[in-house]
Design a protein that fits this description.
- The protein has ten helices and twelve strands.
- The termini are far apart.
- The strands form three sheets. A six-stranded mixed beta sheet has the order 6-7-8-3-9-10, with helices on both faces.
- The longest helix has 16 residues.
- By secondary structure, the chain is α/β, with parallel strands linked by helices.
- A hairpin with a 2-residue loop joins strand 4 and strand 5.
C-alpha cells in the first residue's frame, strides 16, 4: 500500500511554545485517519500545516511523493489536497444548487462560471442536482445556503468538498455543534460518502462514536506530539494515555480470571 501524505519532524512554535513537536505521521492508501486529542493538543495547528495555512518552523510535509512544505494553500488545492473547516465555508448568499455547480466546476478543472453560462450548462446542473439528492438536500436546492440549518450546511459542505475530486480530504470537525439527532444523520451521510470515496481522508474528531464509525486508524495527539496510532478497536483495548482511556471509556487493570473471580496482580 502506498502513502499519499507523510509528515516528518513537523514542528510549529508560537511564542517559544511548541504547538506541534516533531510530528511523524503517514497516511496510508485507502484509510480514513481520525486525528484526536484534548483541547490545545495541536490538532488545528497540524491541520493548518498540512493544508498550507501555516508554515512549519522545522520538518517537512510530503504529498503525492513531493515535498510541499513551502507550497501555498492554492498550490496544494491544485494538487488535490482539499480541506473543510470547523466553521462552514460555503457561499452563504448563493443557493445550495449554485454552490454545487461551483464545486463541480472546480473539480473538473473548469474556470468558475456561475451565472448565465453555468446555469445553461444542462449536464452541470443535472450533476449538481444529483449531488444534492445524495445528501438529502434536493428540496433545498434553490434556498440560500446561509439559511440552511447547521446540519444541512455540514452535509452540503462535505458534498462540495467531495465534488472537487480531492486526492486527500481534510475534514476539520465536520460534526461539531450538531444536536444528537442531526449528528446521527450527518454522521451516516459522511460514512456513506467516505466509503464511496476513492481518495484519502483525515478527520479531526472529538466524539468516540464518530471515531469508531468513521475511522480506519486513529492518531492521538497530546501536547503537540503523536502518542499513539492504532485502529479503533486497538485504541479501545489498549489506550496509551489518560486522555485516550477517558475518551473510549476504558480503565485497564491487569488481572487473572479464575472461574467467577477476577484476581488483580497485587
Amino acid at each position: 500500500m502506498g502513502e499519499l501524505l507523510r509528515l516528518h519532524g513537523l514542528t510549529k512554535r508560537f511564542g517559544g511554545v511548541a504547538a506541534t513537536d516533531d510530528v511523524e505521521w503517514t497516511v496510508i492508501e485507502g484509510e480514513v485517519h481520525a486525528l484526536i486529542g484534548p483541547n490545545g493538543a495541536g490538532k488545528t495547528t497540524l491541520v493548518h500545516l498540512i493544508s498550507g495555512a501555516f508554515q512549519p518552523d522545522a520538518g517537512e510535509v510530503h504529498f503525492a511523493g513531493e515535498n510541499v512544505t513551502r507550497a501555498s494553500m492554492h498550490e496544494r488545492v491544485r494538487r488535490g489536497l482539499v480541506r473543510s473547516y470547523q466553521v462552514t465555508s460555503i457561499f452563504r448568499r448563493l443557493s445550495a444548487l449554485d454552490n454545487a455547480r461551483l464545486a463541480l466546476q472546480a473539480g473538473r478543472g473548469s474556470s468558475l462560471r456561475l451565472w448565465a453560462p453555468a446555469r445553461k450548462d444542462a449536464p452541470l446542473t443535472r450533476d449538481a442536482h444529483a449531488l444534492l439528492v445524495r445528501m438529502g438536500l434536493e428540496a433545498r436546492a434553490e434556498v440560500a445556503a446561509g439559511t440552511l440549518t447547521h446540519g444541512e450546511q455540514r452535509r452540503l459542505e462535505v458534498a462540495l468538498a467531495l465534488a472537487t475530486r480531492p486526492r486527500l480530504l481534510l475534514l476539520d470537525e465536520p460534526l461539531s455543534a450538531l444536536d444528537s439527532e442531526t449528528r446521527l444523520d450527518v454522521r451516516c451521510e459522511i460514512h456513506r460518502h467516505l466509503r464511496g470515496f476513492d481518495g484519502y481522508t483525515v478527520l479531526v474528531a472529538h466524539d468516540v462514536v464518530d471515531i469508531m464509525v468513521l475511522a480506519d486508524r486513529v492518531v492521538v495527539l497530546d501536547d503537540g506530539r503523536v502518542t499513539q496510532v492504532a485502529d479503533p478497536v486497538g485504541l479501545e483495548r489498549r489506550p496509551r494515555s489518560a486522555y485516550a482511556a477517558a475518551l473510549v471509556g476504558t480503565n485497564l487493570l491487569r488481572a487473572h480470571r479464575r472461574g467467577d473471580v477476577i484476581e488483580l496482580a497485587d
